[in-house]
Amino acid sequence: MEKTEITANQTTQPAAAAAPITSMAILAPAIGWLIPGAGHIIQKRWIRGLLLMVSIVSMFALGIAMDGKVYKANTGDLLDILGFVGDVGVGGLYILSQLLDWGRSAIAFAVGDYGTKFIVVSGLLNIMAAVDAYHIAIRRKQ
Amino acid sequence: MILALQLYHFSAAVTFAFFASIVLGITLRNNQREMVRYGLQCFAWFVLGMFLAGWLMWLLHH
Q1: What is the pLDDT of residues A38-61, one digit of tens each?
Q2: Can you say whether residue A141 is alpha, beta or left, with left for phi > 0 and alpha for psi between -120 and 50 degrees?
Q3: How far apart are CA A138 and CA A128, in angstroms?
Q4: How close A81 gets to chain B, by Cα (Å)?
Q5: B20 touches chain A (CB under 8 A)
Q6: What is the DSSP letter of B31?
Q7: Is the pLDDT of residue A2 over 70?
Q8: How sure is the predictor about A97, in pLDDT bands with cuts at 50, 70 and 90?
Q9: Which residues, other chains included, contact A120 with Cβ-Cβ below 8 Å and sequence gap of 6+?
Q10: CB B18 within 8 A of CB A78
Q11: How far is it, in rounded angstroms, from Cα A25 to Cα A133?
């Protein structure tokens, strides 16, 4: 009975708790957020990194090309705030879009709304990629 | 922007599914074989869902 309890305690400990926090565990998600796919590339996951970079940058670029809207902070509207959170996920590309004034025009086409969704989803996918880079850095994933 | 890229609804949705499936496959699976398999599975589900939604909207419209 006692032996069973010990085994149960051992298995409930999360694997990540034992993993040391290295500089790569901080750097990889940060770089991955700033430049899509770069978190994988700096850990020598070349193909995965390039695929992530091409996919996320393409989605963002297509969204801009379709005249999608790039959300700004503090508009007060809840949906705009959620859109902003999604957009910020794309990191450096969001900063670039603010500097170059992309995604400001009024949506004039039906597919312009698709463009907005492309931009938001590219940000959300980039967050997933950054989290994945962190998991690789702490050796939870190969 | 003066000239906006105008994709058809279908091509926009397939493009979305393609890129999203690549990222989902890479991030949500552990080895290369599973990544490819899951990516293809996601793409198939996206496209299937798109056709089902399309037919559903057609039925509701008629």
Answers
A1: 999 999 999 999 999 999 999 999
A2: beta
A3: 16
A4: 23
A5: yes
A6: S
A7: no
A8: very high
A9: A71, A83, A86, A87
A10: no
A11: 8
Is residue B6 less than 8 Å (CB to CB) from chain A?
yes
Q: Which two tokens stand for residue A96?
A: 């670039």
For chain A, the three-class secondary structure string (H helix, E strand, C coil) is CHHHHHHHHHHHCCHHHHCCCCHHHHHHHHHHHHCCCHHHHCCCCHHHHHHHHHHHHHHHHHHHHCCCCCCCCCCCCHHHHHHHHHHHCCCHHHHHHHHCCCCCCCCCCCCHHHHHHHHHHHHHHHHHHHHHHHHHHCCCCC
Q: Scanning every residue of chain A, which has its alpha carbon at the shortest distance from the alpha carbon of B24? A: A125
Interface test with B, best of A40, A47, A53, A62 (most B CBs within 10 A): A62
Cα–Cα distance, A123 to A85 (Å, whole number)? 8
Instruction: Indicate if the pLDDT at residue A111 is higher than 80.
Output: no
The pLDDT of residue A18 is above 70: no
